[in-house]
Amino acid sequence: MSNQTPKILYTLTDEAPALATYSLLPIVQAFTSSAGVQVETRDISLSGRIIANFPSYLTAEQQIGDALAELGDIAKTPEANIVKLPNISASIPQLKAAIKELQGKGYALPNYPEEPKNEEEKNIKATYDKIKGSAVNPVLREGNSDRRAPQAVKAYAKKHPHSMGKWSADSKSHVDSMSEGDFYGSEKSHTMTQATKVSIELTKEDGSKEVLKSGLSLLDGEVIDASTLSVSALKAFLKKAKDDAKAQGILFSIHMKATMMKVSDPIIFGHAVKVFFEPVFTKHAAVLAELGVDVNNGFGDLLSNIEKLPADKKAEILADIDACYADSPDLAMVNSDRGITNLHVPSDVIIDASMPAMIRTSGQMWNKEGNSQDTKAIIPDRSYAGVYQATIDFCKKHGAFDPSTMGSVPNVGLMAQKAEEYGSHDKTFEIPAAGTVEVIDENGVVILSHAVQEGDIWRMCQTKDAPIQDWVKLAVTRAKLSSTPAVFWLDSKRSHDQELIKKVNKYLLDHDTEGIELHIMSPVEATNFTLARIKEGMDTISVTGNVLRDYLTDLFPILEVGTSAKMLSIVPLMNGGGLFETGAGGSAPKHVEQFVKEGHLRWDSLGEFLALAVSLEHLGRIFHNEKALLLGETLDLATGKFLDNDKSPARVVGKLDNRGSHFYLALYWAQALADQNKDAELKAKFTPLAKTMSEKEEQIVSELNGSQGSPQEIGGYFKLDGELTSKAMRPSETFNAVLASL
Ligand SMILES: NC(=O)C1=CN([C@@H]2O[C@H](COP(=O)(O)OP(=O)(O)OC[C@H]3O[C@@H](n4cnc5c(N)ncnc54)[C@H](OP(=O)(O)O)[C@@H]3O)[C@@H](O)[C@H]2O)C=CC1
Ligand SMILES: O=C(O)CCC(=O)C(=O)O
Ligand SMILES: [Mg+2]
């Protein structure tokens, strides 16, 4: 391995992180090239993935390779070193918008065929369906997850605590979940005792069979589970929740993960829309069906479809919608100025980010007047909802957390090889007719079975044994290295978790656990245990499955340090490589809006700085490259100084933004390289650079800040114009010249 060229693969993604890359990457490449480390880019943006998947529709110049597939293969090799920035996990409305933009740019792409009419359209839809939702992360995540707030970040948050909404004991905000008929209540699990292939079959009440999936390979020791959600129970629950929100005078909101759970959650979201606007759907059923309205894509789908109607019909429906609003509880808003509600687009409110944001804001969300109000947070399935209710209960009892004193909750998450629910979408079905769904092995033995009704959602999850072993090992390693108690968040009442508990107890025996504190607790017990400790300033590692990995690595960072963008997010790949994710959150679409409008980008690239430092360190270790190690070390020093001097982007126009923050990182990085004495060559190279940069600090910052305040041209949303964006993101000629001199 060590005779290959050391290489870091830096991903080009979407929205705010993509913009930030235009400014940060030239700095990074200038610095790393001095150490013989190549930083190459790979385009895994939504538009890039669309273009890569439809070569036959495009001209030779338009075609690009499938960078995601390439990275997916690389992730399985020991030399993998990938820095992964957040990308859009597209809902159908976003996918359609991206296609439209590309078509407008001369890409003769096919439209997304909602209801394919022939083989060609079926293929087109299947290709787009692979691009939609969380299509990137599961491909790259060939390892488990290690996310935590580094010491320097935690220290910064304690010194400069972010704002926290006060909590009052009589807050009416709460989580509402089904009491029966959900996935939690129906889960059945089984651990395979030998490798086999299974099929998933529906036997209908008339005795006919429909094969939902066949030839699914399972490994020895793999845990499988199946569960089903009753659509009638769901609808009854949603109806009751709506009435209750109205009776209590609180906002109605629903929190799903329609991106990662791209099959089940849009369906559940669609039911919420239909229940909320029931009179409209009842009265106009025929017209809406005729128009092809599909509210699994949100209420916005209805609104855009009725545009096609004659004016009087459209007005009639709009009047009925207004009557329905008047008669219903207020909806939580995504954008009250533009009238966008929680029900408009399934990917606007994503549970991992939305629930912590609500908890940080006194348990409130925004109403249509733009004021915050107590809220009913609807999370239909019970599997993980209790974590949020327990957190709300804790805040009601003890008040808001205090970021200046609270402890930290790092996470070790079981994620590798599409573990658990997040890998279930190819085994999730909206059941076409009442009957029984069975998972049947090669010998015809029925492993799991559920009675289902038409419209129910049935799903199967897989969790392979090797990732579980790796996860237990990672938990023990982190607990030891940080001398911190670790809690496995596993619910002995859940069938899947029972199988996992057996494995955890077995694999813990492979490790020396002397002197470390380990627990297994249900998610609610673990929440209470952990919250009581963080309140007292104590740290507790959460060791969780894939969904809680996602939820907790937004929840705790947002409470502790204000945003999950400041997390160190490492994926030690199971074959020895490293995937370094930047932060633990998303692509901040609101930040792009602000940049385009007023030339201020408030995206904080701290996650990128942290990821790059560990990436360089990993590369240095694997390739015995001392210069790379030194670059990583000095980058960490620079990041520490960056935090000390509070050089993160401000939220408002006119003050330091993302670009200015990059200048300071570069300055401190150059200074750290100038100050070190391990490598004379790098010292000689960076000493003059550091000197010039600090001499020109005032001029550069004034050029950078001076470029703010006016609308920016970036030539697109999903596919940026490289030249325009580069110009917008690198407005300081002085800084550009200094970098070019390296
Ligand atoms: N790893 C990945 O690839 C992930 C991708 N996503 C994708 O991102 C998109 C948006 O998702 P959403 O749930 O809204 O989550 P985001 O994390 O993008 O946004 C939530 C809020 O967090 C704050 N925030 C996030 N990152 C930063 C940062 N680097 N610097 C400063 N503030 C930050 C912003 O708050 P404020 O507005 O107050 O500034 C932002 O509005 C979706 O397409 C989703 O699928 C989501 C999670 C992970
Ligand atoms: O891949 C996605 O869609 C989101 C990922 C995410 O939220 C996470 O890993 O924390
Ligand atoms: Mg997340």
Automatic annotation (TrEMBL):
Highest taxon in the source lineage: Bacteria
EC number in record: 1.1.1.42
Cofactor note: Binds 1 Mg(2+) or Mn(2+) ion per subunit.
Keywords, in A-Z order: Glyoxylate bypass, Magnesium, Metal-binding, NADP, Oxidoreductase, Tricarboxylic acid cycle
Residues given in the record as D-threo-isocitrate binding sites: 147, 549
Lineage: Bacteria, Pseudomonadati, Bacteroidota, Cytophagia, Cytophagales
Binding site for Mg(2+): 352, 550, 554
Catalytic activities: D-threo-isocitrate + NADP(+) = 2-oxoglutarate + CO2 + NADPH
Site (Critical for catalysis): 257, 422
Transmembrane segments: none
Cofactor: Mg(2+); Mn(2+)
Record: residues binding substrate: 134-141
Residues that, per the record, bind NADP(+): 84-89, 137, 586-587, 591, 602-604, 651
One Gene Ontology term from the biological process aspect of the record: tricarboxylic acid cycle
Family: Belongs to the monomeric-type IDH family.
Protein name (database record): Isocitrate dehydrogenase [NADP]
Parts forming coiled coils: none
Native source organism of the sequence: Algoriphagus machipongonensis
Any Pfam family matching the protein: IDH
